[in-house]
Amino acid sequence: MSDSDKAKAKVDQVKGKAKETVGHAVGNESLEAEGRADQAKGDVRQAGEKAKDAAKDVFHSNKSDD
């Protein structure tokens, strides 16, 4: 996972958690939902980057077997 993409995923997760917490505290369901969506976006981004890393590892390990 590149550092830049990893950071973007973490920012989405943290920003989402903050929005969800504030939304819950003030009773704003829309803000809570937006926060959950931001967290999910970060989770998906992170999972995609982990999948890319895993594919690279498999490719490199197979290439070194040649």
Mean pLDDT: 90
Our measurement of the CA-to-CA distance between the termini, rounded to an integer number of angstroms, reads 25 Å
Beta content: under 5%
Helical residue percent band = over 70%
Helix and strand pattern: HH
Structural class: mainly alpha
Query: Are there runs of 5+ residues with pLDDT below 50, and where?
Result: none
Count of extended strands = 0
User: Quick one: biggest sheet?
Assistant: none
Q: Helix count?
A: 2
**Could you say which overall geometry the principal axes of the C-alpha atoms support?**
rod-shaped
Q: Report the oligomer.
A: single chain
Taking all Cα atoms into account, the compactness measure Rg is 17 Å
